[in-house]
Design a protein that fits this description.
The complex is a heterodimer of chains A (308) and B (549). Chain A is mainly α. Chain A is built from twelve helices and one strand, in the order H-E-H-H-H-H-H-H-H-H-H-H-H. By secondary structure, chain B is an alpha+beta fold. Chain B contains 19 helices and 18 strands. Chain B has a six-stranded mixed beta sheet, with helices on both faces. A four-stranded mixed beta sheet of chain B has the order 1-10-9-8, covered by helices on one side. The N terminus of chain B is likely disordered. Classes of the chains: A mainly alpha (308), B alpha+beta (549). Chains A and B meet through strand 1, helix 2, helix 4, helix 6 and helix 10 of A and helix 9 and helix 16 of B.
């Protein structure tokens, strides 16, 4: 197991270099003037452009730029925005907020989605099954911004039971509703995935064997069925954490949350390459680590698919 | 998206049904009544803004996010009075012409920077030299080009920005035109007479800088020190920036509120915040509030269309030979029925304009555009046939913010009058066309606009229509107009200057590089606790006037 983990960790290095290089090239090599927005709607004066180009190494070719960037990154320097704010600091402010939001969303997905999936999967057809089927279909069909705005308008303005936006501290309690909005789509997928997986495994040979051995029902379901059915669900939830951290742009926008999504969105709009690259580098790390954890978890859940 | 000083990307609402306030000008907000002075004294307002794009150095800030903060942190020789819209003396005790090409400025004594040091003549001279000095690469350098000795401190790039060469190091770091008389008096000498300079000094580019800035600019940027009604408290990058009332402020626009916190959020979330009273002020309502006049029912009594000295135009990319015919350009202008569009699309809440400047601006006179801006389809058709234009006419703009409706209406009128095809070519965001405009690569007629920087007719002409003007985007160049504008710049007194500017304006209309259409207001929204809300000429909340109920 130890060797396996070590090997996986070493594999992260080329993957990390490859992905960051791609991102870097994509962000900085796209045509267009990165300083467009800095001078109001006037074209920037040539001397200003020259000085900025020099400051952000834009005269070098992209490989040299990348090496300079990675060199600085290794010392923990994410670079600066055009307004000379350290990008590392921006990320340090935004990442915990996004992480909290993602955790809330995943928790909601896991609790509601898995419960609904287990109940419907075990019972099969019936009222509950149909109810879950219809409501998950409904959620899948609704784009996030619709769910977000509807909830904000109904709960925030019409019923006035919550403040329509999240304060800059982004406390856990404030993040429940945005987390629900963010996680609603995946929640629907999780419940369907769980249901299918359970329905399938219910008829598996090992279930019949367990039953024939005369094991009690709670043990058959709790240990054998759930454990084996959990594998696809865990995979989905794991990758979703990464998705939710970076992909919450819409939700963060609606509820005014200062997270990674907003940061990267603003970075793209303002052509602040340093912000975009910095955030994406962080997300790459998150994805890599989460995937590693999932693979390790497989080994625990099902020794047969251990990668060792 | 947000954060542009000029109009182009800003919200241009579809249909305002607020009464004529949007076109009456002056005295906006007076009817709201005063607030509770005790509550006002201790209130910190939250104001919608956007993260400054660059460090908060006045000579390097030109976009609206940063300008807002600079305007609160600094006060210069003059300021723009929100009630009258005119430039008035602030830190200047007197500001007089002592020769046709020379101003002498006496400063008021007792003015201080937030760090307690005095505001002296040197603070202005050094700050202006710093901004103008080429190697400092400050955006606003060109604001000093009329001062004697500017060419010694600012050198042009010999082969343009694309070329490999860099501009040679200037031979001096100081403009010879700025001379100190004593600590509270200095002279500004121009290479040729430039009376207009006085009112321009209310603009952000002309602010004084404290000695601490020159000692250590990097440290200063982390903790900006100004001399304005508010002092810097702190910021959370990409989230907010907080200012506090500075009680030792000597200027005319003293604030009554305790402080301001600019918050940088998504515009839609900010709009929700204003509705829910979580945010105190938003200068421009986002599209979701503008479509179908939702803002009126969303925010009864706490949103308003303010007159903001902004005009809407459509411009021809003159560097494209397709648009070389002046007859064609006049035909387009005469084919448009401005009255009808403002009545039907904007429900009468836009005012058609008949020139390139706006009523109420010093130097404005009606009718500069003359017959060229009158709706005359028959004449338009004649000119159009003469121009030899072939193929469809295309007008491009971002389709949001209610632009689609009026551009389509205008296109319809052109189609009808000229009996030729006219198409509206929408794009997602104005930024997409902005790059093509900057690069002189436009092939279609495009929507353009202008928001006044300082109240004078000059601001509507020199930057936009002079050869090489800072915002001359469509390549318009007419040596006669340039000569007339130069003559006006160098006129010995303001009246003479205004007369000459007006003549230049008429000459520009003869060339019709852009078609003037109408004035555009700004729809602002505020929380229930605010009263005395009005906008400054720079489209910002008047922080000296606002109070809490």
């Amino acid at each position: 197991m130890g060797r396996y983990v070590l090997r996986r960790l070493l594999q992260l290095v080329p993957v990390f270099i490859g992905t960051t290089f791609l991102i870097f090239v994509l962000v900085w090599a796209v045509p267009g003037d990165p300083f467009t927005g800095l001078c109001g709607d006037r074209p920037c004066p040539p001397q200003f452009v020259a000085a900025m180009t020099e400051k952000y190494n834009l005269n070098d070719n992209v490989i040299v730029q990348y090496l300079k960037y990675m060199g600085a990154l290794l010392t923990g320097d994410f670079g600066q925005t055009y307004s000379e704010q350290p990008v590392g600091e921006l990320i340090a402010l935004a990442a915990p907020v996004s992480l909290r939001l993602a955790v809330v969303a995943v928790a909601i997905e896991a609790i509601i989605g898995v419960t609904a999936g287990i109940l419907t999967g075990l019972r099969g057809r019936g009222f509950l099954d149909n109810l879950v089927l219809v409501s998950t279909l409904f959620l899948i069909a609704l784009p996030t911004f619709v769910t977000g705005f509807v909830i904000q308008i109904v709960l925030g303005f019409q019923w006035e039971i919550l403040t329509p936006t999240v304060s800059s501290e982004a406390r856990w309690s404030e993040l429940i509703i945005p987390g629900f909005v963010l996680g609603s789509l995946s929640m629907a997928y999780v419940s369907r995935l769980t249901r299918t997986s359970i329905a399938e495994n219910k008829r598996a040979d090992y279930m019949r064997t367990a039953l024939a051995k005369g094991q009690p029902k709670h043990r058959i379901v709790g240990v054998h069925l759930l454990r084996n059915s959990a594998i696809p669900v865990i995979t989905f939830l794991g990758t979703d954490i990464g998705n939710l951290m970076g992909g919450a742009i819409v939700t963060e926008g609606i509820f005014g949350i200062h997270g990674v999504g907003k940061l990267v969105y603003d970075g793209i709009i303002d052509k602040q390459g340093t912000i975009v690259v910095g955030v994406v580098v962080l997300l790459v790390i998150v994805f890599l680590v989460v995937n590693l954890l999932i693979d390790l978890m497989y080994a625990v859940l099902d020794p047969r698919i251990r990668y060792d | 998206m947000r954060r542009r000083r000029l109009l182009s990307a800003a919200a241009i609402p579809l249909a305002l049904s607020l009464a004529v306030t949007s076109c009456s000008g002056g005295g906006d907000g007076d009817e709201q009544g005063a607030g509770d002075s005790n509550k006002t004294k201790s209130a910190v307002l939250t104001v919608f803004g956007s993260e400054p794009e660059l460090p908060l150095v006045p000579g390097d800030t030109n976009e609206s996010g940063g300008s807002k903060i600079i305007d609160a942190l600094f006060t210069g020789l003059m300021y723009f009075d929100a009630a009258s819209g005119q430039a008035k003396e602030a830190n200047a005790e007197s500001f007089e012409l002592t020769a046709p090409d020379e101003y002498t400025v006496k400063l008021k004594k007792g003015w201080k920077f937030h760090d307690g040091t005095d505001v002296k003549a040197d603070n202005y001279i050094k700050a202006w030299n710093y901004t103008a000095y080429g190697p400092n690469s400050q955006q606003m350098a060109s604001f000093f080009q009329q001062i004697e000795g500017f060419d010694d401190v600012y050198t042009a790039d010999p082969d343009g920005p694309e070329g490999p060469q860099t501009p040679p190091t200037p031979k001096s770091t100081e403009m010879s035109g700025l001379t100190k008389v004593d600590d509270y008096e200095f002279k500004i000498k121009f290479s040729s007479p430039y009376t207009l300079f006085k009112i321009k000094t209310g603009y952000g580019a002309y602010m004084p800088m404290p000695d601490s800035f020159f000692a250590d600019p990097e440290a200063w940027k982390k903790n900006p020190v100004g001399n304005g009604p508010f002092k810097y408290v702190g910021r959370v990058p990409e989230q907010n920036l907080e200012l506090e009332r500075w009680d030792d402020y000597q200027g005319p626009d003293k604030a009554k509120i305790k402080g301001v916190k600019y918050t940088f959020t998504d515009a839609d979330a900010a709009y929700a915040d204003v509705k829910g009273n979580q945010l105190d002020f938003m200068d421009t309502v986002p599209p979701q509030g503008i479509a179908g006049n939702v803002w009126e029912s969303d925010l009864p009594g706490r949103a308003k269309a303010f007159r903001v000295m902004a005009i809407q135009q459509i411009s021809f990319p003159l560097y494209n030979p397709k648009y070389a015919s002046v007859d064609f350009r006049h035909a387009i202008s005469m084919a448009i029925d401005r009255e009808q569009v403002t009545k039907t699309i904007f429900e009468g809440n836009r005012k058609p304009i008949d020139g390139y400047a706006l009523e109420g601006v010093p130097g404005y006179e009606p009718g500069a555009c003359g017959k060229w801006c009158e709706h005359n389809p028959a004449e338009a058709k004649k000119l159009f046939d003469k121009s030899g234009w072939t193929g469809p006419i295309e007008i491009t703009s971002n389709a949001d913010n209610g632009h689609r409706e009026w551009v389509e209406a205008v296109c319809g009128q052109i189609e009808e009058a000229l009996d030729t095809e006219c198409n509206f070519v929408p794009v997602q965001a104005f930024g997409q066309i902005r790059q093509a405009i900057n690069a002189h690569q436009m092939t279609q007629i495009y929507r353009s606009g202008w928001v006044m920087d300082y109240p004078d007719i000059e601001n509507f002409l020199n930057p936009i229509f002079r050869t090489g003007g800072s915002s001359n985007d469509n390549g318009y160049s007419n040596p006669e107009v340039d000569a007339k504008l130069k003559e006006a710049d160098e006129a010995s007194n303001p009246d003479e200057a205004h007369r000459l500017y007006h003549e230049a304006e008429e000459m520009i209309a003869e060339d019709m590089p852009a078609v003037p259409l109408w004035e555009t207001p700004s729809i602002s929204a505020w929380s229930e606790r605010l009263t005395n809300v009005r906008l400054t000429p720079a489209r910002e909340l008047d922080l000296s006037f606002v109070e809490i109920k």
